[in-house]
Amino acid sequence: MNKAILQQVHERIKPYIHRTPVLTSELINDIVQAKVYFKCENFQKMGAFKMRGATNAILSLTDDERRKGVVTHSSGNFAQALSLAAKKIGVKAYIVMPKNAPQVKKDAVKTYLGNIIECDSTPIAREDMAEKVQKVTGAKFIHPSNDDQVIYGQGTAAMELFEDYPDLDYVFSPVGGGGLIAGTALAATYFSEHCKVVGGEPKNADDAYRSLLSGKIEFNEHVNTIADGLRTFLGDRNFPIIKKDVEKIIRVEEEDIIMAMKLVWERMKIIIEPSSAVAFAALLKNKRDYKNKKIGVIISGGNVDVTNLPF
Description:
By secondary structure, the protein is α/β, with parallel strands linked by helices. The chain has helices at residues 3-13, 26-32, 50-59, 63-68, 77-89, 103-111, 123-137, 148-164, 179-191, 207-214, 239-245, 254-268, 274-285; strands at 22-23, 35-40, 70-73, 93-98, 115-119, 140-141, 170-174, 196-202, 246-252, 294-299. The strands form 2 sheets. The protein has a 6-stranded mixed β-sheet with strand order 1-2-10-7-8-9, with helices on both faces.
């Protein structure tokens, strides 16, 4: 991986994505006592950063692979992203979703013409079903976060942020499957001279925090968090990047996530989902450590069920 590769990825996906805005809030700056720049991927196509990685992964396939379609397993945002990217590029998408995935996300996948195959809501069930679909259809499996082309695509969000604000001291990213924070770390390495990357993670799903401490990929027995997009695990493609280039991961309580989400809704007048609020919650919880710094925060998505808000 080098700087030129990330730039090439950005050029490749540019016709299919939005260059999302960076928003600021004087009130939030006063609360944090720092300058905070929100990279708003909630305004991305399909409402989340995952459109970037999904698009790059499909565009990286051979013509023959594209003809057979793509398959993934996802409870929400990557399901929508791969469906929409596939629709735009003209490829079939098979989406394995747990039966208990939010209906709003299932509906979105159908809108983007993704073919939903339901399964039980365990990681093993998801993987088994995706494997079956792959065997029957010949479709190429694309992992939501543990795939080099997905990671590079996700890294273009932070790359754009550094192009707009090259002198950031820190960038905060939520941590779920690890694709976004790994891509963010790569962008920081190649497009910033001194910016450090910090992860935010729910305490109730703190596998990445424990993985950094132990030096090996850890797993959660229970993932009882409202940040439904962060209930997944790190993988062997993204963990080495995280281990090398992420300074630390800060754990936050459920109340911290709700408070951060509410603050953004009320003060910035934008819709963000609980998973997006986790990175900002980590900054709020530790704001003394970042006083007077310039800080980027990746708002990862805005796909929320407005009939079931936590506040």
